[in-house]
Structure formats: structure tokens, C-alpha cells
Design brief:
Layout (H helix, E strand, L loop, with lengths): L7 E4 L6 E3 L3 H12 L7 H10 L7 H15 L4 H13 L6 E3 L3 H9 L3 E7 L2 H11 L7 E5 L10 H10 L6 E5 L2 H10 L3 E5 L11 E3 L14
Parallel strand pairs: 1-4, 1-6, 4-5, 6-7, 7-8
Antiparallel strand pairs: 2-3
Helix pairs in contact: 1-4, 2-3, 3-4
Length: 226
């Protein structure tokens, strides 16, 4: 293993640099209310349904529609009700209505002075570009890779390989920062990249190279001075 500090830092976007001002729970409740039906699943059940799906070439919107239709059918409802609900849910999401996580912007500025930076996030530009514009951080990145759009989505290694190639960086000279074990830690590990996991205080189900309690930890990166 190369013991020198990394040359490049990759960062996830959702749940790492920013979060929506309106939660999934708020959006789902509003969609059920507008449709005029009693809630028949929770956001946790929706996420579980997405997680169980085999990722193919469908867009996130198509996968959401399939998940909502399946959840409706499982509760004895017409799948068409689920599809209408999916459309309402999507219509209420403003992708530019985000706020930075505590410490994220100052950490990004600090990292940019020392490393090549790549944004490695799932989702297409129609979903992710408005967030970057709201945060005003697009120019902070030397390269932007959208998994599921430019390449296969994380945790597939494609997005990480694309960023490595664009920055001419060696895998073990890069660290990826993200908030999920499945997409970020396992994805980075599959690409031979070190992983720093932003935790919510709970015990992670795997052991990444580094644990972060907040984005502010990156102003003095844990991999420096080892």
C-alpha cells in the first residue's frame, strides 16, 4: 500500500455535502394528501423496495414508479394508484431546494487547496446540477461524474474509475468521502480507493478506512500525518 497522503479526494453529494430542505417524509405525506388516499407505505418501505430492485438502465423516476406501483399492489390497491402517487411525489421535489451540511462548504474550500477534487454522485444532471448551483460549488471540482448517467451507478466501480482516469490518479492515492456503506464504502473499495464514511453516530456495518463525525473533520483530514 502507498503510505503517502492522497493526491485526490472524491466526494458524494446527497447526504454528504447537502440535504434537501423538505424531507422524503414531508413529500410523501403531501403526495398522499393530494391524491386523497390514506398512506399505505412509509418512506422506509419505499427505500427498502428500491434497494431490492435490480439496477438496470431504468432512470430513478422509472424505478420509483415501479416501486410505488408494487407497494400499491402489495396492499391490495390498483398499481395505477401507485404510479399516480409517484408522479405527484416527483412533482413536489425541487432539486434546487437544498442546504449544505454543517461544515461542508468550509471543508470543500480547504480540501480544494490541497487536493484534486472530484464529485462522484449518483443521479443525472437534471437532478444534481440544481444542487451544485444552489450551493455555488460547481467550480470547486476538477471533474464531476454522475453514476447512473455517465457510467453505471455506485456501488459499481465505474464512476470511481472515470474520476481516476480524468484526474490521472492512482486508486490508492485517492480517498472517497460519502455517507453510505453500500454505495460509497463498498463502491470505493471495489475500485481500490480508500473510503471515509460520514456517520450519523450509529455503528457502521463495515469498517471504512476513516470515520467522520461531521464534514468539519475534513478541515484537518484524518489521513494527513499518519
Amino acid at each position: 500500500m502507498d503510505d503517502r497522503p492522497p493526491d485526490a479526494v472524491f466526494l458524494d453529494l446527497d447526504g454528504t455535502l447537502c440535504e434537501y430542505r423538505r424531507s422524503r417524509e414531508e413529500l410523501l405525506a403531501a403526495a398522499f394528501e393530494e391524491l386523497g388516499v390514506e398512506p399505505f407505505f412509509t418512506t422506509a418501505e419505499y427505500r427498502d423496495k428500491l434497494f431490492l430492485q435490480v439496477v438496470t438502465d431504468e432512470t430513478r423516476a422509472e424505478r420509483r414508479e415501479m416501486a410505488f406501483a408494487s407497494l400499491a399492489e402489495e396492499t391490495g390497491r390498483d398499481p395505477a394508484v401507485g404510479r399516480r402517487l409517484a408522479a405527484l411525489y416527483a412533482s413536489k421535489r425541487d432539486h434546487g431546494d437544498v442546504k449544505p451540511l454543517p461544515g461542508a462548504l468550509s471543508a470543500l474550500s480547504s480540501l480544494g487547496e490541497a487536493y484534486d477534487l472530484a464529485l462522484v454522485a449518483n443521479g443525472g444532471p437534471e437532478v444534481q446540477d440544481p444542487k451544485l448551483d444552489t450551493l455555488g460549488v460547481r467550480e470547486a471540482f476538477d471533474v464531476i461524474v454522475y453514476g447512473g448517467y455517465d457510467t453505471a451507478p455506485k456501488p459499481e466501480p465505474g464512476p470511481f474509475h472515470e474520476a481516476l482516469y480524468a484526474l490521472d490518479a492512482a486508486p490508492r492515492r485517492a480517498v472517497h468521502v460519502g455517507d453510505t456503506v453500500y454505495k460509497d464504502v463498498r463502491g470505493a473499495d471495489g475500485a481500490g480507493i480508500q473510503a471515509a464514511l460520514l456517520t450519523d453516530g450509529s455503528e457502521p456495518t463495515t469498517t471504512p478506512d476513516y470515520l467522520l463525525s461531521s464534514m468539519a473533520d475534513l478541515e484537518d483530514p484524518p489521513w494527513e500525518g499518519e
